[in-house]
Amino acid sequence: MRFASAIAALTSVIGCVSAIGSLGFDLGVQRNYDAGCKTTSDYLSDFSTIGGEASVVRVYAASDCSTLANILPAIKQSNFKLFVGVWPTDDAHYAAEKAALSAYLPTIDSSYIIAVTVGSEALYRGDLPASDLASRIDEVRTLVHGISGYENTPVGTVDSWNVLVDGANAEVIQTADIVIANAFSYWQGQTMANSSYSFFDDIMQALQVIQTTKGSTDITFWVGETGWPTGGGSFENAVPSVDNAAKFWQESVCGIRAWGINTLVFEAFDESWKPATSGIQGVETHWGVWTNDNTAPKFSLNCAFA
């Protein structure tokens, strides 16, 4: 789908947009210099850097690295908002995640928590079938809504746009209060010339399917992950560089926000501790908008909204 067609389709899907979409960042929970778990002071440092651009972050698990125990005090002190992730596999990990929710959500007002998301591309990776994920979303919703003040906190999931639109996972969409879609033009091997067209098309398809499956256009929707690496190896026609990341930011991140779509960017900071898991040389450590020393962003984050 060409860009103009994607824009026309988005217009029909999201209706008359009256506000710029919110911006947030996906955030790692390990330090770069020793791969140790971040402390509250580490998160405060992160938020001091991010705060000039956004006040929303997303973490992928509740119990790993004592995430909720350490991040929630920094969330309150910095007046940030948080997407709390829950890892739904394996059973022992899932139990630890639920225990962390029970222990730490009561320590913070629910206004600081945008949503609780069960799974991060669990369907895409085949971690568990749709019926099991839907069941775990229901379980976590019951837990969260049983905490005083959290009766209306959305509980849902985050997954890749293509598994949300393939028709096999409708029960997850139907069960979830919020469904968040990831889309990476880099991992589709797109040229920079086609990257924004591809991104808009992917997100439009995901949003349209979610709204149709839910039977309503009155839903809260976020892009859960998108971005462009600044270093490492190429994937097909997609070439990492600072210039290309800056172009993707302006054309895709700013562009989709201009149409009222809330967007979480992957990711806030380079994570130099990460192992090479994708088979693409070096790319895993270069997705940050900021380098791992928490200085200035690698490129301008200003969006020229009309």
Topology, please?
Blueprint: H1 3-14, E1 23-26, H2 40-50, E2 56-58, H3 67-78, E3 81-86, H4 91-104, E4 113-120, H5 122-125, H6 130-145, E5 155-160, H7 161-165, H8 170-175, E6 179-182, H9 192-214, E7 222-225, H10 242-258, E8 262-265
Parallel strand pairs: 1-2, 1-8, 2-3, 3-4, 4-5, 5-6, 6-7, 7-8
Distance between the termini: 25 Å
The biggest beta sheet reads: 8 strands, parallel, barrel
Output the number of helix runs: 10
- Series of secondary-structure elements, N-terminal to C-terminal: HEHEHEHEHHEHHEHEHE
Structural class by SSE content: alpha/beta
Tell me the overall shape.
Answer: globular
Helix content: 25-40%
Low-confidence stretches: 1-6
Q: Radius of gyration, Cα only, in angstroms?
A: 18 Å
> Average pLDDT, to the nearest integer?
93
Q: What percentage of amino acids are in beta strands? A: 5-15%
Spatially, the strands of the biggest sheet line up as 1-2-3-4-5-6-7-8
According to DSSP, the number of beta strands is 8
